[in-house]
Amino acid sequence: MKLLMKRDAKQDLNTTTRRATKRPTKRHTKNSSHAVKISTLMLIMVFFSGLSVAKEINQPAPNFTLKSLSGKNLKLSEFRGQVILLNFWASWCGPCRQEMPVLEEIHNRYKDLGFTVLGVNVDEDSEKAKQLLKDIPVSFPVLLDIQNHTSELYHLEAMPTTILIDRDGTMRYLHKGYQPGFEEHYKQEIKALIRG
Fold first, then answer.
1. How far is CA 87 from CA 38, 119, 120, in A?
2. 121-178, pLDDT tens digit by residue?
3. Is the model's pTM score more than 0.85?
4. Cα dist. 99→2, 70, 75 in Å?
5. Looking at CB atoms within 10 Å, which of 2, 60, 75, 157 has the fewest?
6. CA gap 20, 93 in Å, rounded
7. Widest CA span in the chain
8. What is the CA radius of gyration of the chain?
9. Which pLDDT belongs to residue 53?
10. Is the CB of residue 121 less than 8 Å from the CB of residue 129?
11. Which residues pair with 60 in a beta bridge?
12. What pLDDT digit, counting tens, does each position of 33-46 carry?
């Protein structure tokens, strides 16, 4: 009886091994190719779903205090009465680098109308932010969120993330990611918030 059971077990093992080492059929290859295409499409959709031109929101902007690159602590509530473009960025983020000169141009264009850009760098090492800003200098305040508390407060899902805040401290527009052309939307929204 034991011999019979061993033989049956050995036969099952050989059958399983043969099945596992079988060459894929055309149908199997076709299904694998189809699965790869679907997976690729899903990854593309996930990537681009992170980008958004603008989402209207109407919530109070959470207050925070962060140290600026100049060493001074700045509090969001100190800017109440101004329209604020709050931009979260990182030195490793390609679109952030691309957007930085655009933000500088927007800041300079509207700063005399009660508007400011606040850049919030999320790098854990502030030296990386300083190095990037040597290559791409900006005149607007850059704040350091080294421990990412402020990023968590704002529930960031994409990098960069840009939030437009009205004079009363209410978040009005949310932009996730950046692509050339987004700045036209920023300008329209800023003008509307400045006119109030």
1. 34, 5, 6
2. 999 999 999 999 999 999 999 999 999 999 999 999 999 999 999 999 999 999 999 9
3. no
4. 74, 22, 24
5. 2
6. 44
7. 95
8. 26
9. 58
10. yes
11. 170
12. 544 444 433 333 33
Q: Which of the 8 DSSP states describes residue 81?
A: T
Residues recorded for the chain: 196
* C-alpha–C-alpha distance, residues 116 and 165, integer Å: 10
Pick the CATH number of 52-195 from 1.20.1740.10, 3.40.50.300, 3.40.30.10, 2.30.40.10: 3.40.30.10
Between CA 76 and CA 1 the distance in angstroms is 82
Q: Taking the mean position of all CA atoms in its chain, how far away is CA 26? A: 41
CA distance 21 to 41: 30
Q: Please give the C-alpha separations between residue 109 and each of 1, 103, 117, 122, in angstroms, as whole numbers.
A: 91, 10, 11, 26
Helix (H) or strand (E) holding 132: helix 126-135
More confident residue, 196 or 8: 196
Distance CA 88, CA 96 (A): 9
Helix, strand, coil content of the chain in percent (nearest 5): 50, 25, 30
The answer to whether the CB of 173 falls within 8 A of the CB of 57 is: yes
| Residue owning tokens 């800023």 | 190
**SS3 call for 177:** coil
